[in-house]
Amino acid sequence: MNIQKPGYNRSNAFWGVLFFIGFFVSALGVTGVGINSSWAQSIVTEKEDPRDTYEKLKVFSEIISLLESSYVEPIESEELIDGAIRGMLKSLDPHTTYLNPKSYKDMRVETSGKFGGLGIEISMRDGMLTVVSPIEDTPADRVGILAGDKIIQIEEDPTLDMTLADAVNLLRGKPGEPIDITVFREGFTEPKEFTIIRDIIKVKSVKHKIYNKEIGYIKIRSFSKNTGSDLDKALATIAGKGVNRLVLDLRNNPGGLLNQAVEVADRFLDSENLIVYTNGRNEDQNMRFTTRNQAKKYNFPMVILVNGGSASASEIVSGALQDLGRAIVLGTQTFGKGSVQTIIPLSDGSALRLTTARYYTPSGRVIQENGIAPDILVEQPLAKVAKDDKDKVKEESETKKKIRRFLREKDLKQHLKGKKDNKDSLGSSEPVSEEETKKTKELASLEEDLKKDYQLQQAVSLLTGWDIMKQFYKPKVSTTAMAK
């Protein structure tokens, strides 16, 4: 499968190679195809005398021979070599990994938007297996797994020194089968075990809502193969309902396919704009991805929501729109995963997932490790949990005191009616239609969203006052006007 499409600038030497910029996860993965052999050979550039390498390889073969003949228990040479490969790659970055034939085969079907698993995105951070984000409404999300959780044990296997590939293989299984994972979280006094029932994970990557009649809200959960087309449908729907401002929610979005990140950014930028570029060790690894004129453009004033679970493709989109003055980024610092992984098939059906370059925003900021800093820093308050019923009663009474300060006479039960109310009550009232009842419930649900989500609340508030704010806001780079 080739994710590059006509119109994007790129090197012919990379033709047929899929770059996957999401995480090595238990839910999402990559598809890889062949690579130009001359390029593969160009990777092996020896700075030292090749004879030194051959001497080391000779020592390596001697060690294998000794282990096969004299180790206390019989051992297969294939097992030794696989272990040596994994050990070698472990000395590099956590995203460079070896995929045996089975793992490679499994990975080639994972970006279809439907897969089996727990519904968590994982990566290595500070040497620990870390949850980047749970996918909304999946088994992991329902049992309470959170972004930032450290998975310290899978069933009886500790994850210390475990590779991402091995972790993924352990987490996968048949739908309906339970799995126990032990998690340590900031604030825990000791690790906690979660039992999760594996399921078929169906991801609808884009969902949308409308707040205050004119502020559109679009959440992208991940960048899978249909994200661009799903976004087009969502944008057309909200634009048709009079929306003129937009909140793009990329929180807890761990990334996905590069071409879909480019597709998303492309919808909000003029033509001839650079979206992202890569810089690697070899010239063939340096690519530029720019906007095209093949999709409808939207010039809504925008706020992009990000947090520590926003990674990779999410960082490319938010970084590009931030650099080009096209959107305000609100939330907290993003994850900082901005490296290119190339899947290189090997002769025996296995593959090497190799880090070959870094991603840069249009202004030249490196995403790797640094992440994207929001224009407006807004922390999401943690929900307070009462210790016992007495605490709940006390907390409730304090809340009532606060609420009373905002109550008016008309808000009290059985309050004395004014003349207008009395006059209206004498007349016959029209029965409420089902459609009006439905609209009332929808509005109540939207209000509840804003009460629960402080970052979203701030984004909507910001866009509500956009007509005043735009008088003071000046884009960093001249692009499509943000508001007409």
Task: Walk me through this protein's architecture.
With 484 residues, the protein is of the alpha+beta class. The protein has a domain at 116-202: PDZ domain (Pdz3 Domain). The chain is 32% helix and 20% strand. It has helices at residues 37-43, 50-70, 77-90, 101-107, 139-143, 164-171, 227-239, 258-266, 313-323, 389-404, 419-426, 434-452, 454-464, 466-469; strands at residues 97-99, 114-117, 120-125, 128-134, 150-154, 157-158, 178-184, 192-197, 199-202, 206-211, 215-220, 245-249, 274-280, 288-290, 302-306, 328-331, 339-345, 351-360, 376-377. A 6-stranded mixed β-sheet has the order 10-11-12-15-16-19, with helices on both faces. Strands 1, 13, 14, 17 and 18 form a 5-stranded antiparallel β-sheet that branches. Helix 7 links the parallel strand 11 (215-220) and strand 12 (245-249). The protein is globular. The two termini are 41 Å apart. 36% of the residues are buried. The model is unreliable at 1-46, 384-390, 402-409, 418-429 and 477-484 (pLDDT under 50).
Features:
single chain, 484 residues, alpha+beta, Pdz3 Domain, five-stranded antiparallel beta sheet, 19 strands, 32% helix, 20% strand, disordered C terminus
Could you write a compact summary of the structure shown?
This protein is 32% helix and 20% strand.
Give the helix/strand layout.
Blueprint: H1 37-43, H2 50-70, H3 77-90, E1 97-99, H4 101-107, E2 114-117, E3 120-125, E4 128-134, H5 139-143, E5 150-154, E6 157-158, H6 164-171, E7 178-184, E8 192-197, E9 199-202, E10 206-211, E11 215-220, H7 227-239, E12 245-249, H8 258-266, E13 274-280, E14 288-290, E15 302-306, H9 313-323, E16 328-331, E17 339-345, E18 351-360, E19 376-377, H10 389-404, H11 419-426, H12 434-452, H13 454-464, H14 466-469
Parallel strand pairs: 11-12, 12-15, 15-16, 16-19
Antiparallel strand pairs: 1-18, 2-9, 3-4, 5-6, 5-7, 7-8, 10-11, 13-14, 13-18, 17-18
Helix pairs in contact: 8-9
